[in-house]
Amino acid sequence: xxxxxxxxxxxxxxxxxxxxxxxxxxxxxxxxxxxxxxxxxxxxxxxxxxxxxxxxxxxxxxxxxxxxxxxxxxxxxxxxxxxxxxxxxxxxxxxxxxxxxxxxxxxxxxxxxxxxxxxxxxxxxxxxxxxxxxxxxxxxxxxxxxxxxxxxxxxxxxxxxxxxxxxxxxxxxxxxxxxxxxxxxxxxxxxxxxxxxxxxxxxxxxxxxxxx
Length: 212
Prior knowledge:
Layout: H1 5-11, E1 27-28, H2 33-36, E2 44-45, E3 48-54, H3 66-74, E4 80-84, E5 89-90, H4 92-97, E6 105-108, H5 113-122, E7 126-132, H6 138-150, E8 154-160, E9 172-178, E10 182-190, E11 196-201, E12 210-211
Parallel strand pairs: 3-8, 3-9, 4-6, 4-7, 7-8
Antiparallel strand pairs: 1-2, 5-12, 9-10, 10-11
Helix pairs in contact: 5-6
């Protein structure tokens, strides 16, 4: 079967996952050792769509990503880190304090945020792209996953916690509940993910990266 050219072309499609490739997908350390121990490959996937579900936007979801965003923007040959329609304004001093290179960050607004998010993911110009959406359609989620794979981009979609019972094509899904000095992260979906909850603590004296 491996010699069949039609089958070979089919298996190259980004929507097809081949089990034997699970150990080879590239990851980026999250910056939180307890979380990395539970994530597939020991880190965030370098491409593909992940979902972070939270009860309220702006309640700490970006703290979970700041170490990785800092590493991506500081890397040699870093591409863009794009935020699409954030619910609050990014707070530059907090990002800089977390090691994020501000010259590599762009914020995109507009009336069609999911369309813009798809174009950003597909462009191949970004290492990471973040977006917030309350009720995306299943067809939109499938397009976002394919766009993130084709653009080799870490795509992060923040959604309400109520979406936890809905099916999703995302390669990884996490739930996040804020705590006094950190968050409780629940692993909901992932390739070989060890399900369950982890309590993480944010660095002290770091201001919120999103502020009204």
